[in-house]
Amino acid sequence: MKRVVCLLTVLAALIPCLGAVDFTNGHIRLSLNPEAGRFSLYYLTGFSPLKFEPLFSHQDPRTSLLTAYYNEKAYKLGENSKFKIRLDNNELRPALVFESSFLRVTERFEFIKTGGSSSSNGVKITFLVENTGSRRADVGIRFLLDTNLGEGRPGSPLVTDIKPLNGETTFDSLSPDKWWISGNDRLSLMGSLGPEAGGRPDLVHVANWKRLNDTPWKLKYSEGRNFNNRNNPGDSAAAYYFEPRRIQAGESFSASLLLAANDPSGFIVYNVMTALEPPLPDKAPQLPTDPASPVSPLQDDINTLKDLLTRIDHSINSDFQISEEELLRMEEEIARLRSRYGIPEPR
After folding, report:
1. CB pairs under 8 A, 24+ apart, for 210-218?
2. Which tens digit of pLDDT belongs to each residue from 144-195?
């Protein structure tokens, strides 16, 4: 039974990854998942065939998420049944839209090119928060990003344009730092801290991912604490806070931040892309299609996963026992799908 439960856990992590829709511009691939309410960001690192590598943790895309604060309650968007999710499928400005009876949050993405890049190398994320309820409310948002490129190597897992970050750190409106960087020998990601995105976040808290994730809204700052936590050592993350503000029914506010592959000049100069650029010299790879079949390979794989989930769920909730031979076939099928979509085991 333990083996069956393990298979179910892996399948649950696979389905959100397969439900994603990709948008590619220049060197950036943005993957939006309207089922899970999450996104991933990839950078072009190879040609013939094209190869995109993740700029932050993508083993389980649910580890980076948006939280809405509404009248002293925090809602993890994508995990709360009060909010429905839909995708605005705009090639240049795609968005995830989270809607409830009292609040609408639109997470809009625009491709950007920083001053030292010849092609699109990042995104501007704008959060539009609308009070759709019948009375005024105190509303805020938090964006948690699971950084990982600088982990597991000598030195600091993150640095800013001014200093290394060896432990828990906060940045507010008085902080001189303009951006942070998470990087390894091949890739690096930078995130804005200053007003370049069109406004400064009220607070950015860099800390252990689990500590930030387990806190419904705001984590108490622990000066000097490292990035370790029990069963979760050396796992860094950055939480952007746009503090609650009182807005009337029908009113809204917006906030923005920038993410991009590292540029030595940072975000001092950047332009929002007004047209799509192909990932030169080739077009982005596509899954093979069978013209004789009305079902796409992606949909076929999703159907396979759903079938596996049904069979495993039936086994757990009844006396039906899956044979050793069938378990082996399931494990082989899951391994094939993980390999095809580049999805490692969940953390």
Report:
1. 210/235, 212/144, 212/237, 212/239, 213/63, 213/144, 213/237, 216/67, 216/74, 217/67, 217/69, 217/74, 217/142, 218/142
2. 999 999 998 888 899 999 999 999 999 999 999 999 999 998 899 999 999 9
